[in-house]
Amino acid sequence: MTKSRVEAFTDGVIAILITILVLDLHAPTATSWAALGELGEPFFAYVVSFIAIAIYWNNHHHLYQTVKKINGAVLWANTALLFWLSLLPFATAWVGEHLTAFLPELVYAVISLMCGLTYNLLNRCLVSVNGPQSSVAVISRHDRKRWLSLLIYLIGCILTLLWPLAGLGASLVVSVLWFIPNQRVEQEFK
Amino acid sequence: MTKSRVEAFTDGVIAILITILVLDLHAPTATSWAALGELGEPFFAYVVSFIAIAIYWNNHHHLYQTVKKINGAVLWANTALLFWLSLLPFATAWVGEHLTAFLPELVYAVISLMCGLTYNLLNRCLVSVNGPQSSVAVISRHDRKRWLSLLIYLIGCILTLLWPLAGLGASLVVSVLWFIPNQRVEQEFK
Amino acid sequence: MTKSRVEAFTDGVIAILITILVLDLHAPTATSWAALGELGEPFFAYVVSFIAIAIYWNNHHHLYQTVKKINGAVLWANTALLFWLSLLPFATAWVGEHLTAFLPELVYAVISLMCGLTYNLLNRCLVSVNGPQSSVAVISRHDRKRWLSLLIYLIGCILTLLWPLAGLGASLVVSVLWFIPNQRVEQEFK
Amino acid sequence: MTKSRVEAFTDGVIAILITILVLDLHAPTATSWAALGELGEPFFAYVVSFIAIAIYWNNHHHLYQTVKKINGAVLWANTALLFWLSLLPFATAWVGEHLTAFLPELVYAVISLMCGLTYNLLNRCLVSVNGPQSSVAVISRHDRKRWLSLLIYLIGCILTLLWPLAGLGASLVVSVLWFIPNQRVEQEFK
What we know:
The first copy, chain A, is mainly α. Chain A has helices at residues 4-20, 33-37, 40-65, 72-86, 88-97, 102-130, 135-141, 144-159, 166-178, 183-188.
């Protein structure tokens, strides 16, 4: 099975997801600074989600670079990742309207956690099909960032009970963590 | 004629279809569990359609892998499939708002059936242009799943008269049936 | 300059245009046959535009197959074609709500005419850069269908004064004309 | 690292951005010339943004043609450019409704300036990773158009205080400036 069409399809879906985020940034009816200011909270949620999706694309790009083989399980793990990513525009629109409300932030944090879990599942499927000696397996072996991300998302879910903004906050912290792509991948390809 | 641009265009349309489904999942105005609960039915319809479209992409991917030649008839059968798939977001939005109403479920079931029929038509056109000795012909010969799917969609259409949910139900049953891609294709490419 | 990225960008834009057409097919609030029936006119406009855009993609696909070189003029003619195609979802939404009104049909007909004109411009630019001995020049030389299409669009514009439906009608007639792709192209590539 | 997936992802995002612009061109409820005339201002803003985004795609296309290597910094500069471009549909919708209002025009001008700045940043990152002897460095060395564009955007921002239309105006002037792609790139590839 060829990986190029999976990459192309994933690129397509992620490109559309990152772009339709902006559809929930409605143009104000007035033209005052106050009207623009009301967009502050939706805009903050927009920026957080834009960066999160960009990082998933970036990591997906790096992950597949090292991949030789894919199979049906990889295809389904990839689809599961896309499913949870596809819910981010919905969660972003909701949380952007209610930045300090518990439930929208919890939903955002849970969807973020599910994206992280399905990304890990995808990584595991790719390692499994390519074997323990493959590049993707070697690079993934000591990759603590993925487990740390899941932990941060989980803490974000729990913290929303006390401090709702922890939902978006957890996503931001993970983004900072992933901002620099895996050095091991880049070195492998030098 | 090259198949790669047809694949790319189909990937593009399917990627957009699967993504704009989420545009009908509107963020609630309130932030209560009750407000979130009201999204239960649209979300169920969303999941069913997401899986259905993902499976069409998956099968399309597998089908074209075995293909050597395409012609004008293939292009039009492919367009007909995309046309019926393009109506799924509309049907999903309607059925999601009225999960137990007869007419939305019937419309959903009929559109599902038409997607299945045009997929079969596309398969037949590909076999016809590649000849009876081609990989695509050999793999398609004993493929009873395609005919079973059409039967399930048809039964779904009829059952909506008694039990409206049969519309989405038929789509779910077919998805389970197709969840594992055709083993013959994978073996052929080992 | 490579033609592949122009093809990919054009495929992307056309795939999105053909897909967002469906966003104007709003799910009815009721679940009666009468409510569904009210979608008849928007649906008719949807089908006409879907076929028209599919044919533009199809012809664009065939046209570029024969092309060896592109330049800046080709890029701009291609962009002009995409600009006029991008207005079709707007015109389709308007005409679908007012199927027998003069102005929406005239606007639809004029946009159709502009799509046809810019497609001809693109064809001419491709012939010019590839030279009179190129495949694209040979195939284009006796291609009366392109001029006939422009004439039909123009007649459509004028006829809307007497019979508004001529706007969508002209598009349908041209679609029938183009349904079978240029035989010369297929023969050239046998 | 391969540049082709970055190109594909960028093409996808830009294709979607240029297409969803049209979603803010709402079909009028009436069918009179007056109703159509009210679309004049949103349509003008639509045309200006369509051309601006088309030029960014065009220049991005030319820029990457000369590129051999990319790295993480290029990926992030590319993402920053896409972020600012992704705000153009929002700004276009707002400015289209209030063509002569100060704040929407200022926001449009500032977003245009940020697009220009991130494009320059991307160019600089590409030069840095490919080295001073690379094609991209040679072509970029004497490219005064990029700096002139930034100056025009900046003047546009300031002029909106006196003459609001300077926001869209600056974008139009820059578009005229870039209409003809960099001659040096084309010559390099002859």
